[in-house]
Amino acid sequence: MKVAFATQDLKRVDAHFGWAKNIAIYEIGPEGHEFLEAIEFDGDLKEDGNEDKLAPKIDAIKDCAILYVAAIGGSGAARVVANNIHPMKVNQPEAISDLLDKLQEVLRGVPPPWLRKALTKGKERVLDFEE
C-alpha cells in the first residue's frame, strides 16, 4: 500500500496539504516500508483560494491509500477523499519514520475497517468481459 506525507523537510509531517513543498511517498506493509519518491512543488503554495495548486498534488498521490497532513482545507479534503485516499491529520509535527512504524504495527494486527478498505486500493479486480 502506498502512503503519502505532506512535508516541508522530508523528515516530518509538518505541512498543510495545499502549502506542502514536498510530498514523500512510501510503500508499506506489515513487514516493512520503503521510500519510493519525493515530489517537490514550487510556486506560490500559500496562496489561499488557489485551487489550481491542488491538481498536481492530487495527481501525484492518486495511487496512495493514505495521506498524512498537518492540515487540509475543505475542498482539498473533498478532492482527496473523492480519489479514494484517506486523509490523516497529525496534531503536531511528527516524524514520518514514527508514523510508518505505528502504521506498520497496526497492519501486523487487525486493522480497523477503514484501513482494510484502504489496503485494497490498487488491488481492485479488473473484470475481463469476453465478447
Gyration radius, in Å: 15 Å
Structural class: alpha/beta
Helix content: 25-40%
Number of strands: 7
What pattern of helices and strands is seen along the backbone? EEEEHEHEEHH
Task: Please count the helical segments.
Answer: 4
How can the largest sheet be summarized? 5 strands, mixed
Low-confidence stretches: 125-131
- From the spread of the alpha carbons, the general shape counts as globular
**Strand content of the residues, in percent?**
25-35%
Mean pLDDT, rounded to whole units?
A: 87
Distance between the termini: 33 Å
> Spatial order of the strands in the main sheet?
4-3-1-5-6
Question: How does this model look, in words?
Answer:
- The protein has 131 residues and is an alpha/beta fold.
- The chain is built from four helices and seven strands.
- The chain has a five-stranded mixed beta sheet with strand order 4-3-1-5-6, sandwiched between helices. A two-stranded antiparallel sheet has the order 2-7.
- The radius of gyration is 15 Å and the shape is globular.
